[in-house]
Amino acid sequence: MLKKIIFLTCFIALGATLFAQQTNPAYRPTREEMLERYRQATVSDSTINRGKIFNLTVQPTWLDDGKAFWYRRAFKDSVREYVLVNAATGKRQPLFDHAKLAASLSKQTGQNFNPQKLLLTNIKVNRKKHSMAFEMNNKVWHCDLGTYAVTDSGTVIANEAQTIPWWRRNNRRSRWWGYKTDSISPDKQLMAFIKEGNVFIQPVNGDDAIQHTTDGTAEKPYGSLAWSPDSKYVVGYKITPYKDSLVYYVLTSQANTTRGQLKSQEYKQPGDPFTTYEMFAFSVMEKKTTKINTEIIDFFPEPYLNWRKDDATHFLYEKVDRGHQRFRIIDVDVKSGETKTIVDEQTNTFIYEQKIYTEYLPETNEIIWATEKDGWRHIYLVNSLTGEMQPVTKGDWVVRDIDSINAKSRQIWFRASGLHADEDPYFVHYYRINFDGSNLLELTPEKGNHTIAYSPDKKYYLDTYSQINIPPVIELRRSSDGKKISEIERTDVTEYLKAGFRFAEPFYAKGRDGKTDIWGVVFRPASFDSTKSYPVIENIYAGPQDAFVPKSFTTGGEMQSLAELGFIVVQIDGMGTCNRSKAFHDVCWHNLADAGFPDRILWIKALAEKYPYVDANRVGLYGTSAGGQNSLGGLLFHPEFYSAAVSACGCHDNRVDKQWWNEQWMGYPVGKHYEEQSNVTNAYKLKGNLLLIVGEADTNVPPESTYRVADALIKAKKHFDFLAIPGLGHSDGGPYGRVKKRDFFVKHLLGVDPPDRNK
Q: In sequence order, which residues have a C-beta less than 8 Å from that of residue 440 and are 6 or more positions away?
């Protein structure tokens, strides 16, 4: 009997396995069907621009009194409505009488204005004067909201172009920027300066200068002087400069030229040396120079100095060691030159420098510090005098960012993921907590991925939340307790659905450890035959600096358009990417070639097991930059699974790419593992079909990275397609490259010749 039971059990299990492995017949479109697919992809490309989705976001403009805000609603056929919202009650009303304003504008200008289609910008309401100013047709207008009389106030003067680099706008300070202060002391009585490489301090009234150093030279000067708050000390550095080497590229097709133009830029690669800084303190009163008893700074420029409020003989500075395995906050006594380590974080893998958060509170001698030292990113309160620290947050979840700190109320406002066991662990929610870890308040309780916009006084906020397949809801809430005041908007997707499109689907499956959920998203053609099976294309980017699968509502963009050609398009965050546990992230350490492939392959197989129309035997992938490295890596290291790849401007050899990114994950010094994981080194392993794309003017990843891998492929007698685009920078190939990508997958995964575009 037992043998019969065992046999029956095995038979059932085998049957179940065979059934799970069965796939639907492969979708093989005719040429006519394929042309229709291309047409549908073009429609998908333009859906948003054609006005199919309304009120994705609310952009509030708060009135000066902070008690109300207005925003503009959008409807089909360019119909617009301007709405005023009372913040305390949520009561809504028209911001103005649309019909009366349109009539006044029509009378004043002689043009016919439709009250439902007024396009006004930079609206400013003056409640006391019962008036409103706005911009329209490149002019400023004033309107009396009692009589609706309008006056033309003249032409709008265009704003000057933004000169601040995009990476520095609205960002916290970066260690890469360096910190230099003015030469004049805080009390305006003294001036510190460098002459012939040495430090001089001189009264601003012109008295004789005091020379504090004599060993400075033009080759190794002193510099980067910073005053203490009491004007009694100057901190500076003896500097050993290092000039970065150049990388080159050629612009081949410049207009009105007959020769290519050689271009170059300074570019630091892994292993290159840095300018070094040796710290000194100069006493004004004692005319004394003191060498600070600390290590030479050989990574990042001179640090920011955080001075004690009531003792200007001490400051704190931060030091990240090269190799990213140690972070310290160091206390310096400028009088004695002695130092004391306040915070010392060390790890066997890496400390993600860009995720180090510190906020100094000199009034209370405290530091707010965010770190992954316990395996999850959390907030700590540190005594800046003793180094004693207490956790503010804790648990198996991740602090994503800190929005603000109120030292007076001793509260921290922050974002986090993973507190809700029944949700996607990447969903961002907003919270407030006391310094001592008490009274954790969730400001965004609804299920979904959240974004908050606070009122200027922070008494109210607009909470926008959605999921990849659930359109946004925008709510007005009260900051004191998170209470919902009213629902402001729900995104209208009626026209989008009428057009026949479908939403993406979130999907998760177990990763390589059999325990951890790996999350991704699936895009399907708007209309597909569920009795057929469709090839899979993965949009891959395994850069460890972040996670990349969209969590908020989206129509998919390029991924949905590609799906319309007859593919199942997916995007996955495998192990080695960010915003999960430290252990999840650590998979990338010295291991960028892994790219989460073991998790990605299991995920796609699980998707195919659930949906018979997913063909896990026809899988391609594409990516840009690190994704370009990953997409080629799929063919080199996992040819049994991936059969076609489009690789754009890939960093194919981490020794060729930028220093800061590659040493963060691959470590320092540059070891043999760099070479072993290089796509160039492994080019001989190529199987399947490959399209390489590179822009000749790429200043992010040197074009030579792609040319070196092409050279290795040619020497290995491997066949591949190659597209170099004149004048293009760091890109997926632009419009032309995207066409080539689509045609490539149609040919190699669907087995259909793409349209003849030269007819």
A: 393, 431, 432, 433
